Structure prediction request, 137 residues.
Amino acid sequence: MIDYETFMQIKNCHDDKRLNCPQIAQKLGIDERTVQKWLNQNRYAPRKSPRKSSKLDPFKDHIVQLLETHPYSATQIFQRLQEENFDGGFTIVKEYVRKIRPQRVDRFLSSALPRVSAHRLTGDHMALSMWAAPSAN
Prediction:
């Protein structure tokens, strides 16, 4: 399958440069039959491949239900699916869970207060942080 750019190069070589199929094929490094096929097309249309079904498809609704009831990890969901005769791999479960799981918001990190790390403290700030620090005695 060729991309749109190659399709346009084929058309350009044929229409503007008046090259024949073998010459176009040699110039672009593709098969002559491919050139002939695309010269017969009026416009570019990518191949429509049928969507392959996944081993996970029958279990997707159940995964959504599990995540709505409790924030299970992908490992826990994978184990539950195996109990229900899922014979796929962990990676497909992990990727699907990652895709549908809502993003977690850490309330402490989203605070309006600026965060200051220890390596950025200097001078007066260091002295203030020492006063605030509990004593080691």
The CA atoms of residues 11 and 53 lie 36 Å apart. The chain has seven helices and no strands. Residues 57-100 form one domain.
